[in-house]
Specification:
By secondary structure, this protein is α+β, with helices and mostly antiparallel strands. 17% of the residues lie in helices and 38% in strands. It is globular, with a radius of gyration of 18 Å.
């Protein structure tokens, strides 16, 4: 497993002094980025090949949120590469080696010029170390979004939401969705199904369905087609 060590920073904690879910997602995203960069198949290399990895699905399960200044280790391992798809696990452990969070993810490799899936190059198969899946309860990838719910004011995509691929970053999508959760809740699991990319000046219309300890947020275009479906399970 590829890993790096860190210490929870003040800029990463919420109002309770604990790591925010958004910061946890960024740790996971950074971990896979560091691995790819260290293997020589990072952002610059992908850009030269006119290909990009785009996140299709997250499942993140949180046992607890580390506190300010706590030392943690973040790890990732690819467990399957097939056709144009890559599956990865992520985890965060504390100083005692106990898991505080685990995640499953599915990524699609796209041609940046056509926007279509492209087969994984042979050198990537050789470079990425495939290992066994983490022991966790794997939820279905598809998220069922019920009809109805409450519709909120549109969100216009500005520069702050974009990453080096010039589209809305996966964490930014979820940061938008989390704005519609009840106050002072603790998220024990999030599943996110990314249905299409969003770009500068796109308009996202949030539709929110609350069912007990489950909140589903669908970020849609003006025709009702979803960019993101996110399911939050609350403690």
């Amino acid at each position: 497993m590829y890993s790096f060590n860190s210490r929870i920073r003040y800029s990463e904690v919420d109002s309770e002094g604990k790591l925010s879910l958004a910061a946890l997602i960024n740790y996971f995203q950074d971990c896979s980025t560091f691995q790819s960069e260290d293997l020589g198949i990072g952002v610059k290399n992908l850009k030269e090949r006119h290909i990009v990895w785009v996140l299709s699905y997250w499942q993140i399960v949180v046992d607890r949120y580390p506190e300010l200044c706590e030392n943690v280790t973040i790890g990732t391992v690819p467990y399957e590469l097939k056709a144009f798809l890559g599956s990865r696990n992520f985890c965060m452990t504390d100083e005692s080696g106990q898991y505080v969070a685990k995640a499953n993810s599915l990524w699609s490799l796209l041609d940046t010029e056509t926007g279509r899936p492209v087969s994984i190059p042979e050198d990537m198969y050789a470079l990425y170390p495939i290992a066994d899946k983490l022991d966790m309860e794997y939820a279905p990838r598809k998220i069922k979004v019920p009809a109805g719910g409450e519709v909120f004011d549109p969100v216009v995509i500005t520069q702050q939401y974009l990453d080096t691929n010039h589209h809305v970053n996966n964490e930014q999508f979820l940061a938008i969705a989390m704005n519609y959760l009840p106050e002072n809740v603790v998220i024990r699991q999030v599943r996110a199904e990314y249905k299409k990319q969003a770009f500068l000046r796109d308009v996202l219309i949030p539709r929110v369905i609350v069912e007990g300890d489950q909140v589903i947020v669908s970020l849609e275009d003006e025709s009702g087609s979803a960019y993101l479906a996110a399911e939050f399970l609350l403690k």
